[in-house]
Design brief:
- By secondary structure, this protein is mainly alpha-helical.
- The chain has two domains: about 170 residues, no CATH class; about 60 residues, no CATH class.
- The chain has 14 helices and no strands.
Length: about 260
């Protein structure tokens, strides 16, 4: 699939729509799963506070190995649970710390899922048969899952460090590294820093196009907000598939030139 060099944002969006034809149901289900799981991670603290304290402590106690030794069938209440941490000066603060660390852990464990959705979208663009289960495909390989996690953390740190100079350099570097997850999906054996470096090389001359593609979706973001988020059920697959089309185009151009 060779598209030529002079493509506009509308061309990538069109390719995204074409790829989704006949696959909308699978795409919507896949991204609903992603959104539900990431929402749990993003709102973990709020979910914790919404829980009945006794029920939540019972669950947390089970997860952390605490149980009421006096009666195995009795729920572990807040008082009993926090008494287990009598050596700590601020029991409630310690429990909050546990929740905070657990929310980070959940977020980290969900990182491979974002790579899985990238894989799902790449298959759509390449007109391969897709299944909803493709979004979980990265979890089938421990090494690939670990690489996805380490890569996301590395990219985050690098963008943060560049942002310390000024916001603009951070944005530019964030765009430069935007293809990294696709590169890893296409080449499982590539090293973390090699993937980041390759993304930077591939994005030479394409950063402005990438930025314009993002901007071209502003109207869709507004529409999604006006529908109280419901519209994003369809908008998100459309956006992500369009960016997969962008990657496929840049990849083909890079291979032609190198």
């Amino acid at each position: 699939m060779y598209w030529g060099n002079d493509l506009r944002s509308s061309d990538f969006r069109k390719e995204g729509r074409e790829a989704l034809k006949g696959n909308w149901v699978k795409a919507v289900i896949a991204f609903i799963i992603l959104n539900i799981l990431t929402s749990i991670s993003d709102n973990f603290d709020r979910i914790y506070k919404t829980f009945n304290t006794k029920d939540f402590m019972n669950l947390l106690g089970a997860l952390t190995g605490f149980s009421n030794q006096n009666n195995a069938n009795e729920s572990v209440d807040f008082k009993y649970f926090t008494n287990q941490f009598s050596d700590f000066p601020n029991n409630i603060q310690f429990v909050d710390l546990q929740i905070f660390l657990l929310s980070i852990l959940v977020g980290v464990l969900l990182i491979p899922l974002t790579f899985g959705t990238a894989y799902f979208c790449i298959k759509l663009i390449r007109r391969e048969t897709v299944e909803v289960s493709d979004v979980f495909s990265v979890y089938q390989s421990y090494n690939l899952s670990l690489k996805a996690i380490l890569n996301t953390i590395t990219v985050g740190i690098l963008v943060f460090l560049w942002s310390l100079l000024l916001i603009i350099p951070g944005i530019i570097k964030g765009i430069s590294y935007a293809l990294t997850k696709y590169i890893i999906i296409d080449n499982h054996d590539i090293k973390n820093l090699e993937a980041i470096h390759l993304s930077s090389k591939m994005m030479d001359g394409y950063k402005w196009k990438y930025f314009k593609l993002h901007v071209s979706f502003i109207g869709w973001y507004i529409l999604g907000a006006l529908t109280f988020g419901i519209g994003f059920i369809w908008i998100t697959p459309y956006i992500e598939t369009s960016f997969a089309a962008f990657y496929q185009h840049v990849k083909e151009q890079y291979e032609v030139q190198n």
